[in-house]
Amino acid sequence: MARAGLRFYIRENFPISLITKWIRTPKIFDILRLRWNLFRYMREGFKRSKIRSKTFVLILLVLASSILFFATEKKAESGKSPSENSEPLKLDNHSPEEIPLSKEIFYMKDSSKSLPANEITGGEYDSAFRRNTNRIPNFGYDSSPYWLHFKIEVEEPLSEERFLKIEYPHLDKIDLYWKDTLGREGEFHTGDSLPFKERPINDRFFVFPLPLEDKSIVEVYFKVQSEGSLTVPTYLITRTKLEESSKISLLLNGIFFGALGVMVFYNFFLFLGIREKAYLYYTIVVFAFTLFAVLGSGYGFWLLLPDAPKFLAYLFVIVAAVALIFLGLFSAEYLQTKTVHPRLHIALQVVIALWVVYLLSATFVPLRILLPISAILPIFEILLLVVISILRVFQNDRRAKIFLAAWVLGLIGTIIFSLNRLGVYDSEPVASGALKFGLLSNVILLSLGLVDRINAFRKEKEEYKERADQLLELSLLDPLTGVANRRFFDQELDREWNRSVRTERPLSLLMIDVDYFKAFNDTYGHLKGDEVLERVAQSLKECLNRSSDMISRYGGEEFGVILPDTPVEGAIVVALNMLQTVEDMNILHEKSPFSRVTVSIGVSSNLDREIHSPEELLGIADKNLYDAKSFGRNHIRH
C-alpha cells in the first residue's frame, strides 16, 4: 500500500516540479527587469511633474500583472517528508492554551477527487503527504480536495478540554476523521455549504471536539474542499481560551460593524440634506462594504441566515460587485473624471462595466470562477482610483488629497487580503485585519472629505447670498439693461479673485463689445440703440447657467462677465454660445458687414498664464477684445 502512495505522490508532483524548475528563473528575471524600468520611468515622471494618463494606465497594468503573476506562481511550499514517520505534537497540562498547527501538519492534494477516506485514514497514502512549511496552510483558489494530517501525543491526562479550531469560515466542506491508540475513533462532516446546525460546536469558525483527556496518541485526518480560497489556519485551543477569544472577537467586530453602520446612516442623512448623487452612491458603497464584512467574518452565516448556505455564498459575491460598481460611480462623481481626465474616465467606466457583467453572471457562473475574479478585479479598480487621485493632487485639488489618503490605506488592505486569498500571503488574521483597517479608515476619511465638500458648498452659498443681498441693498443694477453695473463688477472681480487665490481654483473673465454700435445709433437713433443694449444684455445673461456666474454693463456698449471655477476652455465655450446667441437674434444692422447686430469677445483666465492681479486679468481680457475687433469683429480672442 505504501508503494501505491509513493506512485501517487510521483504522479501528482514530479512532472510539475521539473517543468516549474525549468521555466521559473528566466520568467522571473524578465518580468522583474521590466518592472524596474517602469518604476524608474514613473519616478522620473513624478520629478518632472509631467504625468500622462497613458503612462499611469501602463503602470497600473504592470502592477496588476505582477500580482497575477505571483498569484499564479505561488503555491503552498512543501517539504518532501512523508507523514508516516512524523513526530506527534506533545501535549500536557503545561502546554499553551492556544497552539497553532503549522509544521505539524502534512497535506496531500486529491486531484482525482475520488480517493476513499478509509484508505487515506488507514495510512495507505501516508507516503504521498508533504509537510506544510507555511505558517498557515494556504492553497489559494483550488477546487480540488486537500487532505491534512497530524498527530497529537497526550503525555498525561489533561485538566481542561481542548478543541481543534479551523479559523476560516469559508470552507465549503470539511470531513474530519480521528482515531487514537485506545481504540476510539470518530468523524465530523460540516462546512459552509451545509446548514449551520451540522457543526459540532456553535461558532463562526469550525470547531471540533477531540478526545484529548486521556494519555494516548490521537491521529487526525481531515479533508477540506472549497470553491473559494482554500485557507486552513488550524489551532488546538482550550475551552476557556475558545470562549474568551469568541467574546473578544464578537466585541471587536461589533465595534467595527457598528462604526460602519454609523457611517451608513451618516452619509444617508447627508444625501437627504444635499441631494447629490455622490452621497447616495457612497451610502450604498458603505452599506455594501458593511454587509460584505459581516458575511466575510462568518457572523452572517452564524447569526443571520444559518439555514441558507447557498444563498449566502452568492450573496457574498453579489455584495462585493455592488460595492465596487457604486465605488466607481462615486469616484467618477467625486473626482469629476469625466471633465478632468476623459481617458481615465473611460477606463473607470470599463471597470464598472466589468463589474456589472460579473454581477449579472453571478446567477449562472460557478463560484469557483467568480471568487478568484472578486479577489483580483478590485486591485485593478483601486489602483486606477489611486492613479486618478494622484493626477488630481498634482492639480491642487484638496478633495483628491483626502481621497488619495483614504485609498492608499484601502489599497494596502485590499492587496494583502487578495494575496492571502490567492495563496501568496499566508497570514489570515493579518489579511483580515488589514482589510478591516483599510476599509474603516477609508470610510472615515472619505466621509470627512464629503463633509469638507458640504462646508465648501455652504460657504459658497453664504457668499452668493451675501452678494445677492448687497446687490439688492445697494441697488447696484444698471437701470437701462437690468444687469449689474460697473461698481458691482469691480467689487465682484476683487472678491472672486481673492477666492480663486485662496482655493487655487480657476477664474475666467469675458469682455464683450457690441460691434459697430455707434453706426447703429447714428442710423436708427439712440432709443433704438438703448433697446438693442437691453436685448443683448438679457440674451447674454441667459447664456449663464450657474448662480455664481455674473454679467454687468461695464460702460457704454461694453459688458463684462465673471466666470468663477471656470478654466479657459470652459470660458471659450461660454463665449462661443454668447456669440452665436446674439447673432441668432437677427437684429437688423445695415451699417454692419454682417447685416445684423453682433458682438466681439475677449477672454482671459488666471491659470492660462502668469497673472498676479485682477487688474492684469481685466487688462488681458480687454486686449483680447481689441484683437477680436481688429480681426474683423464678430470674433473671440483669448
TrEMBL record:
A Pfam family of this chain: 7TMR-DISM_7TM
What is the top EC class of this enzyme, as a single word?
Answer: transferase
Bilayer-crossing regions: 55-72, 250-272, 279-305, 311-332, 344-363, 369-391, 403-424, 430-451
Please state the span of the N-terminal signal peptide per the UniProt entry. none
Q: What is its EC number?
A: 2.7.7.65
Please indicate if the UniProt record lists S-adenosyl-L-methionine as a keyword.
no
According to its UniProt entry, one GO biological process term is:
cell adhesion involved in single-species biofilm formation
| GO CC annotation | plasma membrane
Q: Which UniProt keywords apply?
A: Membrane, Transmembrane, Transmembrane helix
PROSITE patterns assigned: GGDEF
Catalytic reaction annotation: 2 GTP = 3',3'-c-di-GMP + 2 diphosphate
Q: In this protein, which residues make up the domain named GGDEF?
A: 505-638
Q: Name one GO molecular function term.
A: diguanylate cyclase activity
Which branch of life, at top level?
Bacteria
**PANTHER family per record:** DIGUANYLATE CYCLASE DGCM-RELATED, REGULATORY COMPONENTS OF SENSORY TRANSDUCTION SYSTEM
Would you tell me the protein name for this molecule? diguanylate cyclase
